[in-house]
Write a structure and sequence with these properties.
By secondary structure, the chain is mainly alpha-helical. The protein has two helices and no strands.
């Protein structure tokens, strides 16, 4: 199987209740976890390909004072799952 190149660009990530001081850490954790998921699991089953103009990953519930890395990983898993639900 020939590896495929995947280009993913998130224009805006809306996270209500996250401290502005943690936004870069959360964003980096999202990038790392999405990269890991795509590298190890490939594209989610149900993803039809092409450009996705908007994706609602739903709500992510976290415990108060969760580490930014933990929050970012949870957001990434929600985004990955959302890709599999189609456009």
């Amino acid at each position: 199987m020939t590896p495929r190149r995947i280009s993913l660009h998130i224009d805006e990530l809306v996270l209500h209740g996250v401290s502005p001081a943690h936004r870069e850490q959360v964003g980096e954790a999202v990038r790392q976890e999405l990269s890991r998921l795509l590298a190890t699991q490939g594209l989610p089953q149900g993803f039809s390909g092409g450009e996705v103009a908007r994706l609602d990953a739903g709500a992510v519930r976290v415990t108060p004072h969760a580490a930014p890395q933990s929050l970012g990983a949870q957001v990434a898993r929600a985004v990955y799952s959302g890709l599999g639900r189609g456009k």
